[in-house]
Amino acid sequence: METRKGFPSLIVLIACLSALWINSARAQVLIQSDTHDLQNVFSQPLRESIDEYARMVLENALSSEQTELLPMSDEEQASPRLYLNLIRTADNEREYYWISPLFAFECGETVPCTPNAGNQLKEVAVSYIAIDKNSTSFQFAERVSEKISEYKNSEGFHLLANNVKSTLSVSFSEIELAYGLLSLVGQLDADASNLWVIADVVPLFSEKGERGKLKGIAADLVNSVLKEISSPQDILSAPWKRIAKEAMSKSNVLVFAVIRTEERDDVFHWITPVSRNLHGLFGINKPHFESFDDVPRTFRVGTLLEDYRYNVALENGFKVSAYDSWNELVEALFNNEIDTIFGSQGAIDFGCNPNEFKCETITLSSKYDISTAYLALSKKDTCVLVLEKLKLAAADVKMSDEFNERLSSWSDMVSQEYGIAHHTEHGVVHLWNPN
């Protein structure tokens, strides 16, 4: 990767893969501090202060996550790599997962500007906690983002940030703490009053109720987030194709629930996960295969029409049949027209009528992947601080007793009335059994 010039390069290299993080093993986080590139913005004592501040934000946010912060030498290499005080620019936008902002300050010849940074009078640079974007770092980055958003809602964070604000105020009289960052250029604008909120209709998550209003656990989450930022409004519904079109062409489009993919990173800012779904091959009395590649290509695979899994199955050499609905797929499975359904546990549960079939006999034969559906915000000309405002609000809602009681009641209803396999973690619905 090309080295950065003329802006901060306080580098933190992570000496464990994301798998260690997920399995809660003790992760060694190796820190290399290099703030000399900020000499045109901060004096040496102030650079030391922001260095320590950035380190403490990370350390405190991850205090319950089995991590150990250690110094490292310049020669050490590890993946994924995490950076503190990395300036977000148009040139490096696609290279990183932008976890959380730290500082905003004037940009110029030596410090590049951050697009859509929320200041109407002057351009500013925003420094971030960021993680290299690659195939091994996604889950790690997602969890770090969640933990830092949670921490930034805490009394401890505000105490820490206000102490640093007091130190910096001697040199920066306009300093403000807002949206989880310290702005050295005064007030920043994160106006969310013109959000356009639109959802894809999904049973139990966001479905039409009385008078056309959306109901369901995802709609409840979004309504709570909008209330948190003092911007309550009606949620519109539309087919996915229209949602995608609007998000690509307009700013401030708040949508849910959108499956996160690498291709969609150019279109959406990702606010918070709503649900996760395990995708794979499901059959009756079929052996379990550890890898998707191990499944015999003689298996007849059924998918939905115009579903991405149809092409995946074809590309993997299976004989594929497509059906109009999950109900038809389940019927085809029991009629021995196909050997497996390429779908998700949630789809199988929705499509199988227990009064007609022995639904419990359909089991996972091979896992393909896990997809995550998000509350997301259109990227086009949208202020990055509106994203932060929404992320902090979502984290606060998910930690609230009110939302968790609502989620628990919803979960009980889904189990009792629909028999859908699922569990919840950190305010996210996982559509499969935990065991």
UniProtKB/TrEMBL annotation:
Signal peptide bounds:
1-27
Looking at the UniProt entry, the stretches that span the membrane are none
Keywords for this protein: Signal
User: Which species is this UniProt entry from?
Assistant: Alteromonas gracilis
Could you tell me what this protein is called?
ABC transporter substrate-binding protein
Superkingdom of source:
Bacteria
Would the keyword Signal turn up in this protein's UniProt record?
yes
